[in-house]
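=== RUN LOG ===
request id: a7f3
mode: sequence -> structure
chains: 1
length: 126
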Amino acid sequence: MDARGLILHVEDDRSLQNLVRIALEQLGGYTVLTAGSGAQALALAAGATPRLLLLDLDLPDMSGLETLRALRALPGFAKVPAVFLTAACGPQVEAELWAAGVVELLRKPFRPRQLVQAVARTLGDA
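=== RESULT ===
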């Protein structure tokens, strides 16, 4: 694993999975573990505790917020920072995300460097 650590990325769109992986690994020096659904994220989380959770709001089996809550219930995950990378959402959803302890909300579409900078800032690697 790279020195900067592991990021668990939960996104069902394969092209975005690839874009995020390339940006974070090549530009940021992070290792990215990708899940295509909330259930897959929970299964992957059983084997590793990441430094950061990067989630989409709209997932096929449960929402990103439900996924975050389920991950936060796992041992060692309560304080893992969470960033959401999502298309536009309304003020009520944003309020729910902030109340759930999300530290950053990035809008799609995004620029790869913007994502890497946000992750580095969140983790104190900037």
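=== NOTES ===
The chain has one domain: 6-100.
The chain has a mean pLDDT of 93.
=== END ===
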